[in-house]
Amino acid sequence: MHIPRPRPPLAAMMLAASLLAAPAARAATVVIVNPKNNLHLPAAQAAQIFLGKSTRLTPVDLADSSPTRAEFYQKIAGKDQDQMKAIWSKIVFTGRGFPPREYNTNAEVKRAVAADAGAIGYIDKAAVDETVKVILILP
């Protein structure tokens, strides 16, 4: 004798499908410098560099389209992409500096920071290797 099993409600099936389709959690973002640099910075000082308020190091950015970039600026400075563009536009307009050089990938940022002892950048934690030194982890 075959006893039919009850079907789960549509809402439960939709929830299960959305959980299966959800992207994996992103790795933490880390702030990196050249391994020869003995610098240790709290998040507030790193934010000052990326906001153009400190020239202690030269900031290196991921491309504007990078989700890591958007997360980084939200976590480090509480700013979104439009706010960051406005900040750097003002700095450039007043002649006080230039925005960070942009790179398309974690690997490119890593190479730029590894090649310049005065550079500071950020990448996904999963991309870290011995060519750079992590000075700050942003969960």
Quick description:
By secondary structure, this protein is an alpha/beta fold. 39% of the residues lie in helices and 18% in strands.
Account of the 3D structure:
The protein is an alpha/beta fold and 139 residues long. It has helices at residues 10-21, 43-50, 67-77, 81-93, 106-115, and strands at 29-33, 58-62, 101-103, 119-124, 133-138. Helices cover 39% and strands 18% of the residues. The chain has a five-stranded mixed beta sheet, with helices on both faces. Residues 10-24 have low confidence and may be disordered.
Low-pLDDT residue spans: 10-24
Largest sheet: 5 strands, mixed
Write the H/E string, N to C: HEHEHHEHEE
Mean pLDDT level: 86
The number of strands is 5
Write down the Rg.
21 Å
Number of helices: 5
What overall form do the CA principal axes indicate?
Answer: globular
Termini Cα gap: 55 Å
Find the structural class using helix and strand composition. alpha/beta
Based on the model shown, name its key terms.
single chain; 139 residues; alpha/beta; 5-stranded mixed beta sheet; 5 helices
